[in-house]
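User: Let's play a game. I give you a shape written as tokens, and you guess the letters that built it. Ready? Here's round one.
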């Protein structure tokens, strides 16, 4: 079940919010383990009460946590099967090969580079 563009944007925004909040709040990250449904709802991800929720805190082998397409596919699969899997790593992993010299300078200087996987703020 492919998401229409509006639903996809809503999902991406909510998932990005969950990622950033997990990376910036230890309390929220802990809630992902104890109350995943509530924590995800707080970020804007409404999951049916009878659905299974799987939170992956480490990135599965061969996948980069910034691979938004994988997460969108997992969300679409959840809509069809009732099993929702989320990749929310303990800490953000930056693939240095994907950064330009300017990006590296910004990181080193404490610049304001975008950290969300959708890159919507660049």
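Assistant: Ready! My guess for every position:
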């Amino acid at each position: 079940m492919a998401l229409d563009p509006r639903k996809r944007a809503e999902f991406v925004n909510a998932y990005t919010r969950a990622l950033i909040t997990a990376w910036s709040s230890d309390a929220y990250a802990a809630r992902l383990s104890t109350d995943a449904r509530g924590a995800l709802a707080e970020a804007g991800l409404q999951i049916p009460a009878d659905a299974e929720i799987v939170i992956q805190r480490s990135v599965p082998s061969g996948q980069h946590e910034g691979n938004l397409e994988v997460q969108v596919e997992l969300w679409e699969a959840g809509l069809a099967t009732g099993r929702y899997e989320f990749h929310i790593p303990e800490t953000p992993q930056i693939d240095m090969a994907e950064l330009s010299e300017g990006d590296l300078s910004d990181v080193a200087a404490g610049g304001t580079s975008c950290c969300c996987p959708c890159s919507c703020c660049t």
